[in-house]
Design a protein that fits this description.
Elements: H1 2-14, E1 31-38, E2 44-50, E3 55-63, E4 71-81, E5 87-95, E6 98-102, H2 114-125
Antiparallel strand pairs: 1-2, 2-3, 3-4, 4-5, 5-6
Length: 133
Amino acid sequence: MKLLIITALVACVAADVSHILPRSAEADAKILRQEQDVGLEGQYQWAIETENGISAQESGALKNPQSENAAQTAQGQARWTAPNGEVIELQYTADENGYQAQGSHLPTPPPIPEAILKALEYIRANPPPPERN
């Protein structure tokens, strides 16, 4: 009985149900352009564009390759249409300072309240006395 249950569970997990699920037109989008160029010293660039409006490109290089502080840098951009119809455009840079993305769709922090700005200015103008041991 246990063998029959285990066999039934394995059959359910392994079953191909792709014909039941709806297939989106996005799944069959063709690649219109694809370019790749990789150099010997860490530099590279690539670009891709699909028929459904997705495009992306990136370039990068090794910064300070002969030093202890060598770092890979990259900059690029991507563009696609969100399910709600909004065109999303993203630009980014990645280097020793981290990943920094820019785009109108990205959330931004709220402005600092006026009371906090005044308090920070007061602290800057009147620093506390040094602590004594």
